Amino acid sequence: MSRATNTPSRVLPEVSVSDDGRVRHLHLGTPWIQGSMRIDEPFALELEYVQRMMAWLLFAEPARVAKGHAMQLGLGAGAITRFCHRQLRTRTTAIELNPQVLLVCRQWFKLPPDGPRLQVVLADAAQEIRRPLWQGSVDALAVDLYDHEAAAPVLDSAEFYADCRALLTDTGCMTVNLFGRSMQFERSLQSIADAFGDRALWAFTPTREGNTVVLAQRTATRPRRAELLLRAAVIEARWGLPGVKWLRSLKPVVA
Predict the structure, then answer these.
(1) Distance (Å, rounded) from C-alpha 239 to C-alpha 159?
(2) Using alpha carbons only, how large is the chain's radius of gyration in Å?
(3) For residues 36 and 47, is the Cβ–Cβ distance under 8 A?
(4) Is Repeat included in the keywords of this UniProt record (predicted)?
(5) Exposed, middle or buried by CB within 10 Å (0-12, 13-18, 19+), for 211?
(6) ∠ at Cα 125 (157, 100), nearest 5°?
(7) pLDDT profile of the chain (255 residues), mean per 10
C-alpha cells in the first residue's frame, strides 16, 4: 500500500487525461502535458526529455543497476517509475504530493501496485527527503517538480539540491528537468552547482520543446569517452534507450 505522510493543506489542481489513440497524456488543470505514455508500449519512455532523465545509466555499472535504488520526485504520468521498476528491475520509490495523480496513474497509466520493489509515498518532497530513512540510499534520483502552470520548478534552491545530494550513494547521480531557454535556467544551474560543485555537473542541449536535463554526480568523475561509449552500447542493447545519441549532446558544465 502506498504510504501517506502529513502533507500541507493546499488546493491541488484537478488531474485529467487525454489521448490521441496512440499516446495518453496527463494534465494538471491546464492543457500543458505533464507526462505521457505510449498506449501499446506502456513501459517504454515516450518523451525525449524523459529518456534523457535516465542518462545516469552512463555512470553506473550495468551489472549493478538491478541492485540499486531509484527515486523519482514528482510522479507525473509515472514513466520513470514504471521504467525503473519493470525494465531496470531496480528498487523504486516515488514521492508525489497529489493523491489524484497517484490514482490516475494506477487507473490510466499502468502504474503497478506497491510491492517489495516499488513504493509510492504521498508527501511533500521537500520534507520527505530529509527523513534519515532515505539518506545515502539512492543511486539514481530523478527530479521533475512542476506545478499546473509548468513555468518553473517548484523546488529549486541550493538548500533543496543539497538535500537531494544527501540522498545519494557515493556513486549516485541526480537528473533534473529544467527549461533551458528560460531566464530561470542559469539560476537553477547555479543552485545545483552550489550544492554539488561545478565539476559534478553535466547538461544536455535543450530538446525541441526546450527541456534541458541536467545531471549532477554525488562524486564528480570524468570518465573516458571510450568508457562512456561502451556503457552507451550496453544501454541501447539492454534497455532500448539512445545511449550513443546522448553522448552527442551531454557535456560537462564548464564553470
Answers:
(1) 34
(2) 17
(3) yes
(4) no
(5) buried
(6) 130
(7) 53 86 88 86 92 97 96 94 97 96 95 96 96 98 73 80 98 90 82 95 92 96 94 97 96 83
Domain ranges, ordered by start, for the chain: 3-252
Q: 131 and 59 in contact (C-beta within 8 Å)?
A: no
Q: What are phi and psi of 149, to 5 degrees?
A: -85, -15
The residue among 147, 203, 145 whose CA lies nearest residue 173 is 203
Extract the C-alpha cell encoding 94: 516515488
| CATH number, span 3-252 | 3.40.50.150
Q: What are phi and psi of 96, to 5 degrees?
A: -135, 135
The 3-state secondary structure of the chain, one letter per residue = CCEECCCCCCCCCCEEEEECCCEEEEEECCCCCCEEEECCCCCCCCCHHHHHCCHHHHHCCHHHHHHCEEEEECCCCCHHHHHHHHHCCCEEEEEECCHHHHHHHHHHCCCCCCECCEEEEECCHHHHCCCHHHCCCEEEEEECCECCCCCCECCCCHHHHHHHHHHEEEEEEEEEEEECCCCHHHHHHHHHHHHHCHHHEEEECCCCCCEEEEEEECCCCCCCHHHHHHHHHHHHHHHCCCHHHHHHHEEECCC
The set of cell numbers assigned to 127 is 520534507
Output the pLDDT for position 217.
98
Measured in whole angstroms, the distance separating CA 55 from the mean position of its chain's CA atoms is 10
Residue entry with cell 537531494: 164
pLDDT of residue 1: 47
Sign of torsion, CA 163 168 174 176?
A: negative
Cβ atoms of 151 and 215 within 8 Å: the answer is no
